[in-house]
Design goal:
Blueprint lengths: L2 H59 L14 E4 L4 E4 L4 H8 L1 H34 L2 H12 L6 H12 L4 H9 L12 H25 L3 H9 L4 H12 L1 H16 L3 H6 L7 H11 L3 H32 L1
Antiparallel strand pairs: 1-2
């Protein structure tokens, strides 16, 4: 190879590499509108079904109740004589929530019920998801179908079915009496126990599916490496499996805790008349008291209570990922 040829080859290689990079850059630029279009669909969906309703509810929460249609005053009033628009904000709805202990008790009781239900659901769902993830592919399809099967029936029918199970002469009491375990029927319906049963049963699939998705992708070689290093089965679970399944646990807990916190139907059907949860307070304010501004303030505070910790957690995770 002469000197001219040896100089030509690196130059040609560099030119081809440059052209390849330009082609990739051009292709990436042409695909950019497609990415924007794909990202715009969920953005439009969130704006239409979350942001706009949130702004409307927030506006109502700053108004005053009125005997009219709609049952609240307008925030802006136009004075034709002075040709001026005045803004009237009423923060009393929010202040009243902190003054009346009823709302604080409803919030705390809802948090307690949602937290206990989420914890018990996690305890039940984790072994189920682990068993499904470790089963054979053919059995996995059947087991997943059984998890999803309750969604094929109406939510109200499932809750009404539990009323039949838990009532005084229901299936559970009849079974316990026939087995001689109890002498008289237990009072289970219209109690907190019935509320926990209803919430756990209803939201159990929401915990199982994220956990299964995480556990199914778990790298088995990590468990084999831990076994080679002398870890016993329980040590492998607590040192490898459990930490790696934390994202699925977190997703499942959020999917159960958030709807359980604002649940209305299950406490209304299975709980007692004295059950105080924030969903019932919202219903009473909207439809019994016709106080839409105060009910909107309750809804806004509940939403902030749910969204703010999630945003802080997400920011903390993002910073941790940037550091690593």
């Amino acid at each position: 190879m002469n000197r001219r040829t040896s100089a030509f080859i690196p130059a040609a290689t560099g030119a081809v590499s440059g052209l390849w990079r330009q082609a990739l850059h051009g292709l990436s630029a042409r695909l950019q509108p497609g990415k924007t279009l794909v990202a715009s669909i969920p953005t439009f969906w969130l704006a239409l079904f979350f942001l706009i309703p949130f702004v409307v509810v927030f506006k109502i929460s700053l108004a005053e109740p009125a005997i009219a249609v709609p049952p609240y005053t307008a925030l802006f009033e136009w004075d034709a004589d002075l040709a001026l628009a005045s803004l009237q904000l009423n923060l009393g709805n929010y202040l009243f929530l902190f003054e009346d202990s009823l709302y604080l008790e409803a919030y705390l009781n809802s948090i307690k019920v949602a937290a206990i239900s989420t914890f018990i659901t996690l305890l039940l769902a984790y072994p189920m998801a682990y068993m499904i993830a470790r089963s054979s592919p053919s059995n996995r399809v059947i087991l997943l179908s059984l998890v999803i099967l309750p969604f094929w029936t109406s939510f109200l029918l499932r809750v009404y079915a539990w009323m039949g199970f838990l009532k005084k002469n229901g299936v559970v009491n009849e079974l316990l009496l026939s087995m001689g375990l109890i002498d008289e029927p237990l009072i289970m319906l219209q109690t907190d126990f019935a509320i926990y049963i209803g919430i756990i049963y209803t939201y159990l699939p929401f915990m199982v599916l994220p956990l299964y998705s995480t556990l199914e992708k778990l790298d088995i070689s990590l468990l084999e490496a831990a076994e080679d290093l002398g870890c016993k089965p329980m040590q492998r679970f607590f040192l490898v499996t459990l930490p790696l399944s934390l994202p699925g646990m977190l997703a499942g807990c959020l999917l159960v805790f958030i709807p359980a916190l604002g649940e209305y139907v299950i406490p209304a059907l299975l709980g007692g008349s004295d059950t105080l949860m924030i969903g019932r307070v919202l219903w009473d304010e909207f439809f019994l008291n016709r106080d839409w501004p105060r009910a909107s303030a309750v809804a806004i505070l509940m939403l902030l209570f749910l969204v703010m910790p999630i945003m802080l957690l997400r920011n903390a995770q993002g910073r941790r990922e940037e550091r690593t």
